[in-house]
Structure formats: structure tokens, C-alpha cells
Amino acid sequence: MTTTTLRRVDRSPRRIAFSQTLGRWDIKFSPYLYISPFFLLFAVVGLFPLLYTGWVSLHAWDLIGGQGDFVGLDNFAFVLSQATFWKALGNTFSIFLLSAVPQIAVAIVIAAVLDQNLRGKTFWRMGVLIPYIIMPVAVALIFSNLYGDRYGLVNTLLGHIGVPAIQWHSNPLASQLAIATMVNFRWTGYNALILLAGMQAISRDYYEAAEIDGAGPVRRFFSITVPQLRPTLIFVIITATIGGLQIFDEPKLFDQTGTGGANGQWLTLTLYLYNLGWTQLNFGRASAVAWLLFLVIVIIGLVNLAITRLIASNEGVRP
Amino acid sequence: MKFSRRTTAAAAIAGAAAFAIIATGCSASTAPAADSSKPITLTLATFNNFGYSDALLASYHKLHPNITVVQNKAATSDAAQTNMFTKLAAGSGLGDIEAVDGDWMPKLRQYSSKFVDLASADNKGRYSAWKTAGGTAAGKVIGLGTDIGPEAICYRSDLLAKAGLPTAPADVAKLLTGDWDNYFAVGDKFTAAKTGAAWFDSAGATFQGLANQYKNFYEKNDGTVIATSNPDVKKAFYSVLTASKTSSSHLAEWTNDWASGMANGAYATMLCPAWMLGVIAGDSPKVTGWNIASVFPNGGGNWGGSYLTVPAQGKHTAEAKAFADWLTAPAQQISAFKTAGTFPSQVAAYTDPTLTGATNEFFNNAAIGQIFIDRAKAVKVTPFKGVKYSAVMTAVQNGLTRVESGSQSIDDSWTQVVSDIKALG
Prior knowledge:
heterodimer, A: mainly alpha, MetI-like fold, two-stranded antiparallel ribbon, flat, B: alpha/beta, D-Maltodextrin-Binding Protein, domain 2, two-stranded antiparallel sheet, 43% helix, 15% strand, globular, Bact_solute-bd_prot1 (chain B), Carbohydrate ABC transporter substrate-binding protein (chain B), signal (chain B)
């Protein structure tokens, strides 16, 4: 009896221990298991190409002929020594600033208007999204027609009010402005909707209190809406940055040749990458540009992160 | 690509000339297994409009009941090129038969092992020698010729009349017979009459016509780039741009402005490969003054034209080879010419009454068949076009555009052309 009991006592804890272990594993590892598909997928379609591009960038690599000699950092040295690369980097930032800044400013105003009590709310909200669902290629074709140097609609209209024709395809700033309008046309409504969602999450109590205190609509917008919108704004700015630095369709389709202009007036980094890889078939150099672009985006991302932290700590200080 | 459509295809067409001549003798041909024992589908990938109508493809199905042909059309030569290089790199996904623009044929020449040798007793001597040469690489015929773009001069008879110049095609041909300086000199006369129109469309297009008349303009036969040291290039660059100051409409080819300029009478003449007729009729449908003179400055020239290739990665290469052979035979190409105006590269077609008797109503019933047959015969030089050709050409064309758009002087632009070409390394 005693022995049996003892045996049972001996065995039981072991069985309990095992199911307990299972239970503990369940709690410990299941969440990771559930989110692992994303990371496995990311490893296959995101991380692997990223690392492989790095591998390619260290070799002489022909698009079709494939891997050549190991050349170390020669591809990077070549690309960095090219004035074209720095021009493309400058253009990328310039187009990014010309598009992102007005885009977000306008988007926030549109969102504020949509946040009012409008008739046919859904209609207006869906309306601002229409440019987003038009194919970028179609947008680029229409706009490059509007911005024709001699027979374009924009210059014809400017002519009527006595403004001399703008050389949209040879003046660097004009061409970048034209491209920025295409980008803005496409993304402003999209960003407005995200900001609108953020605005609707702001507690209406703040507005009521402010109204009672006598704050007008403009004061309420700047003192309540904008500060409360900060997390959403940060999200919008980060996505706009990543997208803006990789802009490709619009400059590619801005003229008939798609090489970024006779003097590289609107040559962006992605377009430069494309020219190297697919026109010159030099995949090694194209990969080097891809990695440099990646580094630029990472740096900008870190700056974004620093700003975010700063804002977050400010919020902590706030009473 | 700079001249994505067919702009400079002229150039590229004859690309492999030098290698090709070496190659002709040694291509081993296997008997094509034209008929499959099981029903199969062949995919034919083309771009723009090759003139391969559904009826034409259906007639092959009638001849070979086991073979069904499906045609996939890419919108532009550019799209087809990207598709070709991406899938060639991937090793799968290409059509059984792929159309290749002469423009980027030279780039494919390096990868001849990825294509099936299409030489056969049937198609030997079918094309003009330089066309065959352009599709041959490292001893293999990797491309069978479809169309070519022999060049004439298209002109607006109404604008010429305004300037007091002759307007009948024969008279215009006489007027323009001579070298490029003569063409520019007539242009000065035209400009002096102040009609409000320019003599030619753009420096870029005109330069291209001139560049295609040299055997080794940008590159030596071994592929070494000589564009920056070849005095002919610099001379042509300066002479075309000097003429452009007064004679050009400064509308770069293929831009929307260029097309609108055609409809608005911005220029009186333009270099005119056979396939350009369709472009002109399409872009300026309401203009009645267009005509064609059977003449070209400094002799003859070719601009554009394509090939059919059979990528080795396909599953039915033997059947595809037989089909490509059939499709590029004179009878089928004449049918394509009737559909889309793609001028045959097949020598035998030039005696076919359908072609010799062809006229074009839009161009005041010009005898386009005979005109372009004569222009094709006038093509004497096969420009060498190597791997770097399209990149070098883009750099030079960009230089021409910079001057025409007024952003640089000729000297500054040439300096940048030289440094851009060096950067291709």
C-alpha cells in the first residue's frame, strides 16, 4: 500500500510536470508561433533578397550572364564617385520635400474639413480616395501631357494670363515640381483619410471644453487637433518618407525616354538604379545603389525615431 | 531606353554585322520537327503592331492542326525589352517565340547560347545580307528578320509651296539629292522664307539618320567605344546642332510636343522610315499636305526593324523554330505589311506585285511600295552596334537635347557627353 502510494506519488508529479511544461510552453512560445508566418515570409521575400542584393553588389554581375569576379567594394566606390549618383540623391530629396511637405499640409486640412458635419460624408470621403485608385502610370501619362513644353495645357493657360511658357522638361526645379504634383495628386487623399481616422479618435470632450472656453475653430484646430494627431502624423510622415525616397513611376514616365532627363534634371535614385541594372545590364552597380538607398532610408528612419522619442517624452512631461 | 520605340532601332538592326559575317557559314541546322504528335500551344510574344492578324495565325493552325498559336502583345518595345531581360535572367517565363527590336538585339548577341539556332535551308538568303547579319551571333542565327525601316524624306507640300520650293515628289527628290550639307542648305532657304515652320523636327532624329551611315560610328568592331575620339561623331554633333539653331523645331522625338507639332505644322520635313508613315498618319490625321520623296541625304539609311527569336528555355523549341521560319517567309511578311505597314526585310518580297504596287492614300497616293523598295536597295552601310551601343547613343542624344532645349551651349554639352560616355566604364 505504502509502496503503491509511494509509486503513485513518484509518478504523478512527473505527469503533472510534463503537462505543466506543455502549458508553460504554450504560454511562452505560442504567441511567437502565431506571428512567425509573417517573419518566415519576410525572411523569404524581404530579408533574403536584401542580403542577396548585398552579395551581388560585391561582384561584377551581369543581369543575364550572372555572377562574375568578386570585386569587393569596387561597385560602391564607382557609384559614389559618380556625379550622377549625387545628383540623383539630391533630386530624390528635392522631389521628396516638394511632394511630402505640401502633401501632408493639404491632407491635414482636407481631413479637418471632412471631419466636420458634412452632408453625404461617405461620398466626400470616398471622393478624396479616387486619385489613389487611378493607376500611377495613367496619372503620369495625363500629367506629362499637361506639362508639355510647347503644346501642354498648363503652358497654354499660363500664356492666357501673360506668363511666359515654363520649360517643364529642361528646367530642373520646374520638372521636379511637375513630378511632385503627380505624387501629391495620388497620395494627398490617401493621407487625408488616415489623418481623418486619427482625428475621429480624438475625444470630443476636448472640443466641447474648448468651445465653452471660447476657442474658435482655428484655435481648436491648432491647439487640439494637431497635437492630438501627433502619433498619426508620425505614421504618415514615416510612410511618406519611405515611399517618397523610392519614387519611380512618375519620373520614369515623365518623358518619352524614361532616363530622368537629358541632364538628369529629374533623375531619382531608383531611376538611376534602373538605368544601371536594366539599360547597362550592370547588376553589381545597380545592387550597390540599392544598398546605398537602403542605408539612406535607414538613416532617415533613425532620425524619425529620434524625433518620435522626443515627442513621446514631451508627452510624458505634460501634466 | 532612349529611343524605346523604333527610333534608333535602325541603328541596332544591323548590330552584329561583323560577327555575323564570320558566322554565316558555320550554322548547323537540324531538320525542324514542324508537326507535333500531340496538340500543343505556342506563345508568340510581340510588341506594338507586327501585323500578325488572327487570321494569319489561324492559317498556321490549319496547316498544322496540332499547333495552336497564341499571340501576346506588349504595348511598347520598352516593355518587351524589360520582360525579355528579366525572364532571360530568371531562366523561364518567356514565350516560345519572342520578337526582338533591332534596337536591343546587340545586347542579346552576348547571350546567343540562350537562343535556338534558327538557320535552315529554307531561310538561307531570304533576307538582305545586312539584316541576316544583325540577327547572327557567334555562329548562330538567333533572330529571323521581320521588317526593316529603309528611310526616305517625308515632307509637307503645302509648307514647301509657301516657301516657294518645288512640291512634286520627283522635284523634291532632285532638290535633296546630295549630302547632309545640301539638306541643311535647302533648309536655310526654307527658313529664309519665314513660313513660321521649321525645316526638320529635331536634332536628335536628324543626327540618328546621319549616324546610321557610318560603319563604325560609336564603336570599333571589337566593341571598344570610340565615340569620344572619333572625329566623325564630334563633327556630326556640331554640324547638326549648328543647323538646328535655325532649322529645327526643337521638339524632341516621341514627346507629346513632337506629335502635336506634327499636327500643327511645326516642321516641314522629317526623316521617314517605312513604319513612320503609320505614325505620321496617326498623329496628324487632319493634315492633307504630307508626301514622300524617294531620296535620303548622303545615300541610303535604315532605321528600325525587328527579329523573331526562339529562346532555348522554351518547351517546344523545334515547333517554335518551324513556326518562326514560316512567319518570316515573304508571303507572311507581305500579309503583315498589308495589315500594319511593316516593310518586309525579305528580298523575294520586293518583286511581289502586292508590294511593288502598294500606294498610300494619306500621302497623296505615293507609291510607297516602290519607293521603299528603292530606299532599301540604297542602304549600303551596315553600322556596327555592340553591347554599349544603346548607352552611348543615349548619352549623345541627351547632349543634343540639352542644346536644343537651351540649357547648354554646344561646347558645354559636348564636354558632358564625353564625361558621360567615360562614366559608362
